[in-house]
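Researcher: Last one for today. Full complex below.
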Amino acid sequence: MAKILEKRLIRHPDVFYYRIDAPLISRKAKPGQFVIIRLHEKGERIPLSLADINPEQGTISLIVMAVGKTTTEMSTLNAGDGILDICGPLGHPTHIEKYGRVILVGGGFGVAPLYPIARSLKEAGNEVIVIMGARSKDLLIYENEMQQACDKALITTDDGSKGIKGVVTTALKQELEQNGANMVMAVGPAIMMKFVSETTKPFDIKTIVSLNSIMIDGTGMCGGCRVSIGGKTRFACTDGPDFDGHQVDWDILINRQKTYLNEEKESFEAWKKHHAFAICE
Amino acid sequence: MTENNSKKISLIKTPIPEQDPAKRRSNFEEVTLGYSPEMAMKEAGRCLQCKKPLCIEGCPVHIPIPQFIKAIKEGDFKKSIDLIKTASFLPAVCGRVCPQEDQCEKNCTLGKKGEPVAIGRLERFAADYAMQSWNGAGIEITKPTGKRVAIVGSGPSGLTCAYDLARFGHEVTIFEALHEAGGVLMYGIPEFRLPKRIVAHEINLLKDMGVEIVTNAVIGKLISIDEIMEEFDACFIGTGAGLPKFMGIEGENLNGVYSANEFLTRTNLMRAYAFPEYDTPIKIGKRVAVIGGGNVAMDAARSALRLGAKEAAIIYRRSEKEMPARKEEIHHAKEEGVNFELCTAPVRVIGEEGWVKAIECVRMDLCEADESGRRRPMPVKGSEFRIPVDIVVVAIGTGPNPLVPQSTIKLVLNDCGYIIADEETGQTSREGVFSGGDIVTGAATVILAMGAGKKAAKAIHEYLMRT
Ligand SMILES: Cc1cc2nc3c(=O)[nH]c(=O)nc-3n(C[C@H](O)[C@H](O)[C@H](O)COP(=O)(O)OP(=O)(O)OC[C@H]3O[C@@H](n4cnc5c(N)ncnc54)[C@H](O)[C@@H]3O)c2cc1C
Ligand SMILES: Cc1cc2nc3c(=O)[nH]c(=O)nc-3n(C[C@H](O)[C@H](O)[C@H](O)COP(=O)(O)OP(=O)(O)OC[C@H]3O[C@@H](n4cnc5c(N)ncnc54)[C@H](O)[C@@H]3O)c2cc1C
Ligand code: FES
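Model: Here's the assembly. Have a good evening.
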């Protein structure tokens, strides 16, 4: 059982920040890694990226977007509550070295795990640029943190309510044309990472993506998280989650993520029936 | 007199009650119900009590078989379990899942004329009887030695090693990556063959003996073997061969293709059969094809039926004779209506809109035997055909999990990535680090993993008492 020390709503109504007491994990964890949690005896195991790691305090932070049953159920937990199982750190850390000019591209909850990566890249002597995208300005997360951690922060909104009007790839293409880059890293929805990879391809810039396939154990035991990289089957949990975006078979990943759409709906509906009071609108 | 006696001995095993196949194929309750005390005593009476008991030689952990059977015959069930426990820590498990036909029962003198003594069933009876009436009180534990041993992995090898080391008086901590201890016994072998309460009972016994079990502890990630060796006096690695293999054929990443490990883990460990009461879902569809011929394949096919599939087929490239599964499992699978497509190999999985629609197979001819002694299958030209299916489960074997080997320096591995360890002691290339079970031998059996854990415990004890 791991205790939640702090919980904050960071984007109304569905994105939450948690600081969790996990001394052993915090001691070992590195940016780019993730944990797998299970809320209770009947819960499923879901992967969540590390949004911050604090070995001095013995804590880790998670940013969770309530999208379905488990993440919404988690959103009802508060400081003082416990999470039954927390397993990690899993996956390989993001490879950090002095690349030169690095562009980070974040979408949705993906901006959060990019935060510790941005700081490590800075420490390693890189010039770090972040591009954060959302449909509208109210949906952006971690804006201030990223602005502080990076040399330059570009914001894109679909509706033009803030920053550049358009999607992240619009800004990415502009940035590459004007200033170039030695490395691009993207974390977010698969479809976004796919388009980021397609955008960087003609520039021949190495692009690292963090693949979010459906996982169970996170230890290489089930193969449910498998992805196709350069025609070879790889396990996102143990071989990744970072891979070369130009080698990823995106259609397979996106298709496999949809495996349980019906069951996810069924499970969420059943839960909502009994917990209508718990969801903050 | 002797002649009279032998005439009376039945040539067949005392039948064991089983759930009716038609009924059991839709529930997860145990298939084989177990002997009553009367049945057990009757079966025990068939044992000839051979002077030179070959059965013991067939048992990888050398259970004193004729002795415990004699105790059952005499109605002294407590004594029978005490005798078994001198050699085996998990009799309720082994009585259910050991391939007895290749081990103890294969050597039984009665087996020459008729059916061997049902040693497995008797072992199970003694263990189950003890479980109901006895809670492990009386296990002798030597006084504490002050030495600390870490066990990595809580499968049968790790559990057995922990049990013996605790009895020797050492302080034992087990690190398990998953949220529940038990290894394959918990996540792989289904409830209807090995009820999880039995595994849990044995694990609780260990806890009562003072063994600490730390779950969610992925060694190699959370703690390295080097760090373990700084804190502990010795370490046993029993991480199993849990890495699923895929066939590398077209369509293998379509939705609806599972590894057996994923299919069984969702079902057993995550209780997907009780979805949505439990959160983890599983896809079943109407027709399920399982590729492979071992216990794992049988478990997957039989689970599929219980999860609601209308049809389940085993696709195996050799003939039934070569199937590595236990005879009883093949028999049970057939009774439950699992179809067998023998001498058949998959060529590709055919999809539609991202989902499995059919599996294309080819018939195989069995040619002369290869090094493994099994006949080599060769595809028959032009024999391709399609089986329409919704789900494909790949059960063609597993490899070594790389997490510990990859993260541990100076641990010598063989070419396939398994840890090299001495067969008798489990000693690896690193001082104080021992290993056994599937991570050394490749996927094998529960009893062999237990045997390895036992030998290693002895060697670790000797090592600790020396240093
Ligand atoms: C390596 C990795 C890191 C992640 N990091 C974060 C993070 O930091 N913050 C965050 O909010 N989300 C993160 N996710 C996604 C998160 O795991 C899913 O949103 C969550 O599992 C959804 O569960 P649910 O029951 O709430 O929703 P569901 O209704 O079950 O699912 C919603 C969607 O999430 C995906 N999903 C469902 N189950 C799983 C599963 N077991 N494993 C992976 N994806 C699943 C599916 O694509 C599904 O369509 C990460 C995923 C991966 C693989
Ligand atoms: C579906 C199925 C059916 C089977 N049926 C039979 C049968 O009928 N009869 C029979 O005799 N055998 C059967 N077997 C084989 C038998 O279960 C195995 O040979 C046996 O369990 C091996 O034991 P082990 O202790 O080596 O490892 P395992 O049982 O594999 O346990 C290894 C444990 O180590 C953990 N682990 C792995 N890596 C780490 C890490 N880095 N840190 C911490 N923990 C880790 C794993 O999570 C697991 O719990 C079956 C196997 C399967 C999969
Ligand atoms: S999540 Fe099971 S192998 Fe990756």
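DSSP finds nine helices and 17 strands in chain A. The longest strand of chain A covers residues 2-11.
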